[in-house]
Amino acid sequence: MPDERSKRQDLPLARAEQGSETQAEQLVRDNIAWMLALAERILRDRGLAEDAVQEAFMAAFRGLDSFEGRSTLKTWLHRITVNASLSKLRQLKRLAERPIDEYLPEFDRHECRIEARWTYLAPLQDVLENDDLRARVSESIDALPESYRIVLQLRDIEGYDTSEVAELLKISASNVKVRLHRARAALKKLLEPILRGEVRR
Fold this sequence. Notes:
Elements: H1 4-8, H2 12-17, H3 21-43, H4 46-62, H5 73-91, E1 106-107, E2 113-114, H6 124-129, H7 131-143, H8 146-157, H9 162-169, H10 173-195
Antiparallel strand pairs: 1-2
Helix pairs in contact: 3-4, 3-5, 4-5, 7-10, 8-10, 9-10
């Protein structure tokens, strides 16, 4: 039965490490598109995303010894790309805490939410099939303060659990939960004009 080391020799990164430039190039070709898309979702800037992905590949090849095949190659590269992208955000100081209150729902003195009457609710399928409306949804997410947007991005879009997000952002799990709750509430308010049908084709 092959041991862990021999199994690792069959991994694409291990083959690339052993000096096959073709294997290394293939690894980049196979993964660069989704890694760029991921980095751009986090950084919201193509140039920064390209820099982050380049750094992610460098980190991957430097860290070959830490990859034992316990997760898939894509999962491992995903985490490295997220870390590289978050590092860029920290360098730009875009993860600094900013208030989100202006985006949150308002309540009256009886703690009832103040909102306009809903006379129409756009079917979700209509929103998903409408390029303009999908763009508005993306813009609404981008409008959130960075420290809240990134929690929403990692938790609800990229699928990391609360403890993983806390580790990635170097904050407590309870802080992640608070930011996520407030980010979801703010996003709901920002999306209401779309769901009410106030934003049309």
